[in-house]
Design brief:
The complex is a heterodimer of chains A (446) and B (310).
Chain A: H1 10-27, E1 34-38, E2 44-48, H2 50-76, H3 85-144, H4 152-170, H5 174-196, H6 201-221, H7 223-226, E3 232-233, E4 238-239, E5 242-243, H8 251-254, H9 262-288, H10 290-300, H11 302-307, H12 312-338, E6 340-341, H13 348-361, H14 366-385, H15 388-393, H16 401-415
Antiparallel strand pairs in A: 1-2, 3-6, 4-5
Chain B: H1 2-32, H2 39-61, H3 65-95, H4 105-125, E1 132-133, E2 141-146, E3 152-156, H5 157-179, H6 181-191, H7 193-198, H8 203-229, E4 231-232, H9 238-251, H10 256-276, H11 282-296
Antiparallel strand pairs in B: 1-4, 2-3
Helix pairs in contact in B: 1-5, 1-8, 1-9, 1-10, 2-3, 2-4, 2-8, 2-9, 3-8, 5-6, 5-8, 6-8, 9-10, 9-11, 10-11
Classes of the chains: A mainly alpha (446), B mainly alpha (310).
């Protein structure tokens, strides 16, 4: 049924829009309207920016206008269930994405050739795969067990520094250090988790955030161990002992190939791909075991869990430790890829970005994390290419990215609190297995 | 001795600022049981607003004592009004629709909001560097004590100003919560929201006003922070915010006198630690306090033990 246009509540919409515009104007009158800056002589200067302020207010008014009109439309049209295009595509996504991830370097190589594709595999492929792995690791903690961890990057840092220090002092190779890094991160996860996991969700979030800051502060200030802000060198990855260089004993010479930097990129890509796939397989297997079911039950309702005799502390602790372990493994890989570590790489911002992939993608959904990582980090890299935006609005698009991520998280919570792919398949069912959309399930409060 | 007195003065000054921020955390937590991650950013926006107005006013009127006084008053009024309005809108847009939603939804929304606010200020005000400063406000001091080594403990005028303003604000706030119908409505919502609404308390309005009051106190803290440090960065919301939250937890979350007490203690711990042990690890010291308090006495100094209801 189509609503006749004259039945819409135009007057109300105009009124609300005017209010929204006025409120926005007042709210940002100082923050947007007046700009303080230092000129080249280091004098403090003031300039007014009326155009920006008015533009912003008009934008807010227009937005409010559309929202109110849309609301009045929905009031008049009876709500009927409609299957969107996304629900149709969703079941086929998983094999497509796995295939894409598995053959990405080969596709790129075929399309662009050896020189041009190095940048794509390095900047896009490997970076996105690292975040997919981190997202999958955090997904166990946040998505499955429902524990909001805001300091996940601490475990990533622990993994990186474990490899760097073992290599520096004891000459460990990447493959020897990798399991140690995972175990170290898991141990730290248990050490942090043991005392704090009996706290409620909100406290846990703040404590993990504080933990992340502590680890970063130690990495910055303990200069004798970590090199502080000046950084620490990490040996680069080798092909099981063969370095990727143009020398006689290098990888290319050993296999009789011509030396190309892309060999290293492809090898790195497949290392992180393998690590990520292992994470995914372990997650899928664990989900079917009693521990995985206990995690999901815990996410839905903690009190009910305890009443049913599930040991909530141990359940949380395993989720925390396993999530931390994958963070540590990804961290060791990150160190081997960068060849150089500074505490800058482990800021709170990284934790927020990793959390964003889980939040956008869908709590507990592996496919969702992949989609979100591709959209988020692919989008960011593409944002770099859009320099014309700067001429258009006078702002470097790179600086907008965290603003967009922050607003995106708020909007996602308002629109779909469970994330993009929020379909949940119950593990225990009566007679026939049916998927339930996350939106149709009544929320438990734990 | 003089050194200790100096640290005591600075610790109490910094602690009053943390106390003002902590009150906002504890009030919101008391009434809707949620950690408002964006509160630190609201404080930072209060401080940035104050900085802009201070620079604008002093550049027109000069830096005579009278002009500085007028500028500071204007800063205070504008920061309080704008940040209260901001927090009202944040509550309405980002938190209210999520009441009764997925357990983690309000937390994630608050986190997103905090990031959006921080980067909004970064994009539109900090184009040429991550720090803005003003010439030192209110110079001058009185000497208190000089020890044998010649170290002189001084009480700066700005420390006096910060303590006085904090005391006045907390007095007004105490009156508001204890003696007015608004405060009564607020305390009833804190005890039992459903029952309060059955008895005719407008719960939504009360929660909104709670956010506005919390933001007003944070804005005052922002102005005082600017007076204390003479500079502010868009990053300055997160760490002081986390410290103020620690203060709220230490004092006992939900308890208003506890928040102020916790703030003072955290201020003292931070200054004493950087004075006597190591200024590199002052943040680590404060965050360790948070973790230790949550493990040993999660109810805090003045809080009541929490009973989880089904």
């Amino acid at each position: 049924m189509k609503t006749p246009l004259h039945k819409l509540n135009w007057l109300n919409a105009f009124k609300e829009a005017a209010i929204a515009g006025a409120v926005t104007f007042t709210l940002f009158s100082v923050l947007l309207g007046i700009n303080i800056y230092q000129n080249s002589n280091n004098d403090t200067m003031i300039r007014l920016r009326p155009a920006l302020l008015v533009g912003f207010s008009l934008f807010a008014a227009a937005l409010r206008f559309c929202i109110i009109l849309k609301q009045s439309l929905q009031l008049q049209v009876p709500a009927h269930k409609k299957i969107g295009w996304f629900e149709k595509v969703e079941p086929h996504l998983q094999p497509i994405l796995v295939g894409l991830m598995a053959f990405f370097p080969i596709i790129m190589l075929g399309l662009l050739g050896g020189q041009a594709s190095t940048k794509w595999i390095d900047n896009y492929g490997i970076v996105i795969m690292i975040y997919i792995m981190l997202g999958w690791g955090l997904n166990i903690v946040v998505g499955l067990a429902g524990l909001l961890d805001l300091g996940y990057v601490a475990f990533y840092a622990i993994g990186s520094y474990t490899y760097a220090l073992l290599a520096q002092h004891y000459g460990f190779s990447f493959w020897m250090a990798l399991p140690v890094a995972g175990v170290m991160a898991a141990l730290w996860g248990i050490m942090l988790g043991f005392p704090v996991l009996r706290l409620r969700g909100d406290y846990l979030a703040v404590v993990t955030m504080a933990f992340g800051e502590i680890i970063r502060a130690v990495a910055v200030n303990w200069r004798e161990l970590t090199g502080g802000g000046a950084g620490i060198n990490v040996p680069k990855i080798t092909f099981f002992g063969l370095p990727f260089n143009a020398n006689e004993d290098g990888f290319a010479a050993y296999f009789g190939l011509e030396f190309m930097p892309i060999h290293r990129s492809i090898f790195l890509y497949y290392v992180i791909f393998t690590l990520a796939i292992i994470t995914a397989i372990i997650t899928i297997k664990l989900k079917k075991l009693p521990i995985g079911r206990a995690w999901e039950a815990l996410r839905e309702d903690e009190i009910a869990c305890r009443s049913l005799g599930i040991n909530t502390r141990n359940t949380k602790l395993t989720a925390f430790a396993i999530g931390a372990m994958f963070g540590g493994l990804a961290g060791a890989f990150f160190g081997a890829r960068q060849g150089f570590l500074t505490p800058e790489s482990f800021s709170f911002e990284e934790s927020v970005l990793i959390l964003a992939t889980v939040v956008f993608g869908g709590m507990g959904s592996l496919t969702g994390v992949v989609l979100a990582s591709i959209a988020l980090f692919g989008g960011m890299e593409i944002l770099r290419e859009f320099s014309f935006v700067e001429q258009l609005i006078g702002i470097d698009p790179n600086r907008l990215r965290m603003l967009i991520v922050g607003l995106g998280m708020v909007l996602m919570m308002l629109w779909k609190p469970r994330g993009l792919i929020s379909t949940r398949t119950p593990t225990v069912f009566l007679k026939q297995k049916k998927s339930i959309s996350g939106n149709l399930v009544k929320e438990g409060h734990g | 001795m003089a050194e200790f007195v100096q640290y005591l003065i600075n610790g109490i000054t910094l602690g009053s600022i943390y106390g003002l921020i902590a009150v906002g955390y504890t009030m919101v937590f008391g009434i809707i049981g949620m950690v408002n991650f964006a509160h630190g950013e609201v404080f930072m926006i209060g401080a940035v607003t104050a900085l802009i107005i201070y620079v604008a006013v002093t550049s027109f009127m000069g830096t005579t004592a009278g002009a500085v006084f007028i500028a500071l008053m204007l800063c205070l009024v504008a920061a309080i009004l704008l940040t209260s309005l901001l927090n009202l809108i944040i509550e309405k847009v980002a938190y209210r629709p999520l009441r009764g939603s997925f357990r983690l939804a309000p937390l994630i929304s608050a986190l997103g909001m905090s990031y959006a606010l921080k980067n909004f200020v970064n994009v539109f005000q900090y184009e040429y560097g991550s720090n803005k400063s003003v010439p030192s406000i209110l110079t001058g001091h009185v000497s208190i004590i000089t020890d044998a080594n010649g170290f002189e403990a001084v009480l700066n005028y700005k420390n006096i100003l910060i303590m006085i303003v904090t005391a006045i604000m907390l007095g007004i706030f105490w009156y508001l919560v204890q003696k007015t119908p608004l405060g009564r409505a607020q305390r009833s919502c804190e005890q039992d929201r459903k029952m309060a609404s059955l008895l005719g308390v407008d719960v939504n309005r009360t929660i909104a006003i709670t956010f506005a009051i919390g933001a007003a106190l944070a804005a005052v803290a922002g102005v005082l922070y600017l007076v204390f440090y003479s500079s502010i960065s868009y990053n300055d919301g997160t760490i002081p915010g986390l410290k103020a939250f620690t203060a709220a937890v230490l004092g006992g979350i939900g308890s208003l006198p506890g928040a102020v007490l916790g703030g003072l203690l955290i201020g003292l711990i931070e200054i004493m630690w950087s004075g006597y042990v190591s200024s590199d690890y002052k943040d680590v010291a404060v965050f360790s306090v948070l973790i230790i308090v949550l493990i040993i006495m999660p109810q805090g100094i003045l809080g009541k033990p929490e009973v989880e209801k089904v």
